[in-house]
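Work Package 3 (structural annotation) set out to generate three-dimensional models for the target panel prioritized at the project kickoff. During this period the team completed the workflow that converts sequence records into discrete structure tokens, so that structures can be stored uniformly alongside our sequence database. As a representative example, we reproduce one entry of 380 residues exactly as it appears in the project archive.
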Amino acid sequence: MKRSDPLLYMDHPVPNNFPRLKTPHSSDLYRMQVRELREYAMFMMDPQGILISWNEGVERLIGYSEEEWIGRHASIIFTPAEKAAEVCSAEMRMTEERGSVTDIRWHRHKDGSEFFANGSMSAVRDGSGALIGFAKIISDETARKQLQDALTESNTALEQFAYVASHDLQEPLRTMRAYSELLAKKYHGKLDAEADMFLNFLLSASSRMSDLVHDLLAYARLTTEEERPSSVALDEDLEAALTHLEQAIRESGASVTHDPMPTLQVDRGQMVRLFQNLVGNALKYRKADQAPLVHISAEQKGAEWVVSVRDNGIGFDPEDASVIFEPFKRLHSAEEYPGTGVGLAICRRIVQAHGGRIWAESKPGEGTTFCFTLPADRQT
């Protein structure tokens, strides 16, 4: 299990299921309940960080008895050991300034081993507002952290396998597709109608499998290739994508327009692929009796740029808005609209890799607008 020493502070409220310490004016019954609560380590310290209270959870989670605990400095539970006093003091200062601080980080057991904990420190003040100490609550999240790390490792292994498998499958699939085409060309009409049908099935299946492996490889590459940010005018990436789509635009009679785009620190190749997939999607899902109209716009909203790709196509049910970004999830059969169902999943991976979000707004028969965000701090 990998450890992460940096202290992570979050300005969100303590979770609802997290017990809360009351002020020193709490009843004796409440103090008894706190002492015997074993699921959480709950304790108080004076303004200098000296521990002045203890509960059963301290011994169960951290390992200190009441006699070993009271009177020591709270830095005994912080990591790394050589900077424990500094880290503890920093958390106390921040708590005094903010009133309360939530942290998710590694802490130390009595025996020196470490555990991953969700903690909350609150400043305690008297009636005049003077600081009289701090209250801290800790829950052990090590098991959850281990499970999360295991899932991350598993996902990484699966992504690497998908990359290797799809890469290695390309050559035999090319061979199978080439010989399928040769068979169909050489023996078409020379055998019976059923044989011609079987050859067509073979050619169609090999062609679809080849496309599927190609898209799967593209999807896997997004997690195996490092992002290569550079200063990019998105207008140039969009124009490059439209060049790749030139034949499809011409055959569909589409009109594709766009507003000025910002210049951002992004991966040029991935941006071209993103625009190509989104515009290509608009061309594919067009209405049979209308030429596609596609417009791309960009607007800065606070700390992010919102880029929109709007079309006048067939649209879809809003309930399917989240499904379409899942790999291999299709709303139509391959016979109705060709494709592998990976294109929009690739778009989501690209946007997320750049710290953004992607979503779609649509209604059946009323076109679709795909929107994605890019952080404004990438702007140059």
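The longest strand covers residues 114-125.
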